[in-house]
Amino acid sequence: MAQEQSVNRPGYVAVEIYDQTYYLAGEDTEHIRALAALVDARMRTVAVGGRTVDSLRVAVLAALNLADELSEARKAPGGARLTTGRAASLRGMLDEVLEDERKIG
Questions:
Q1: Is the pLDDT of residue 104 over 90?
Q2: How many domains does the chain have?
Q3: What is the pLDDT of residues 74-98, one digit of tens each?
Q4: Which of 7, 18, 40, 47 could connect to 2 by a Cys-Cys bridge, CB 3.0–4.6 Å?
Q5: Within a 13 Å sphere around the CA of 99, how many CA atoms are in the beta-carbon half?
Q6: Which domain holds residue 36?
Q7: What is the pLDDT of residue 5?
C-alpha cells in the first residue's frame, strides 16, 4: 500500500509504490498520495494476475491498464475535460518513477 514517509524537503512528498520509496514534487500532497495508492494497488493487482516479478514490466502493464481506463473515461460524456496540464503532470510522475526503475534495475 502506498504510504507517506517523512521528508524534510518542502514541496516534496515521499510515497511508497510497490515497495519502493519515491520523492515526488507537488503542491497537492493528498492528491499525490491518492495517485501513488492507485498505482501501487494496480501494480499489485497486475503482479498477482501475471507471471512476471520484474517490477518494470509490472509498472508498464499497470500503466497500460490505467491508460486504457483513461481512454475509456475520455469517451464518456464530459470525459474529455481532463486538462492537458493535468495529463502532463501525471506523465511526468510516471516518467520519474520509470527513470528510477531504470537506474535501479
A1: no
A2: 1
A3: 887 766 665 556 666 777 777 777 7
A4: 40
A5: 9
A6: 4-104
A7: 44
Residue 32's Cβ-count burial label (10 Å; 0-12, 13-18, 19+) is: buried
Here the contacts of 64-69 (C-beta below 8 Å, separation 24 or greater) are 66/38, 66/39, 66/42
Alpha helices in the chain (DSSP H): 29-49, 55-75, 84-104
Specify the DSSP class assigned to residue 81.
Answer: G
Distance CA 102, CA 70 (A): 25
Distance CA 48, CA 20 (A): 17
Nearest Cα to 65, choosing from 38, 37, 86?
38
Query: What's the chain's length in residues?
Result: 105
Give the span between the Cα atoms of 83 and 48, in whole angstroms. 33
